TrEMBL record:
The lineage of its organism: Bacteria, Bacillati, Actinomycetota, Actinomycetes, Bifidobacteriales. This is GNAT family acetyltransferase. GO terms for molecular function: acyltransferase activity, transferring groups other than amino-acyl groups. SUPFAM superfamilies: Acyl-CoA N-acyltransferases (Nat) (SSF55729). Keywords: Acyltransferase, Transferase. InterPro entries: Acyl_CoA_acyltransferase, GNAT_dom.
Length: 170
């Protein structure tokens, strides 16, 4: 049975963050970046996550002593004006070969627990409306969908997606 753990990302984790993110970019369906990002871009992104914001590495243990980093999750600034302090934006990416085995649920629980520990009052996320796995995860965890923008953004496969907007009262 696979078990999951997490840790706060450091500079040593930029490679896994970059690799997992670029896999999602190339696959399409979960990000509006149209081309893979470089190590330097991901390092700069990681550096912008100063307390109370953070990036976490998700690790899977197969129960036989094999551990591997399979994804990352972030608590980011929602909007950079002081009146929005306590409101954050959530994101997560799981390696394709690790999906469907509970990593997403573990990651969402981790994010919400970390939001509470960091004094957030509301967590928001933006998801392609046709991303059934992520929209379903938000619904299961009690998020409220507060908006839908049809035909809003393209992915790397040149597919136009509607965007769904979700929030959770921490």
């Amino acid at each position: 049975m696979t078990t999951y753990s997490y840790r706060q990302a450091t500079d040593d984790d930029v490679t896994v963050v970059t690799d997992v993110y670029n896999e999602a970019v190339i696959e399409g369906g979960s990000t509006t970046d149209l081309t893979p990002v470089g190590y330097g871009e991901r390092k700069a992104w990681l550096d912008r996550h100063r307390d109370p914001y953070a990036v976490f590495i998700i690790t899977a243990d197969d129960g036989q002593g094999v551990r591997r980093d399979i994804g990352f999750a972030s608590i980011s600034v929602f909007y950079d004006r002081p009146g929005y302090d306590g409101v954050c934006s959530l994101a997560y990416y799981i390696a394709k070969d690790a999906r469907g085995a509970g990593a997403g649920s573990f990651t969402m629980r981790t994010l919400l627990d970390e939001c509470a520990a960091r004094g957030m009052r509301r967590a928001c996320t933006t998801i392609f409306a046709d991303n059934a796995a992520s929209t379903g995860l938000c619904a299961r965890f009690g998020f409220t969908r507060y908006g839908l923008m049809p035909d809003a953004a393209y992915d790397s496969q040149d597919t136009l997606h509607g965007m769904s907007y979700w929030y959770f009262d921490v």
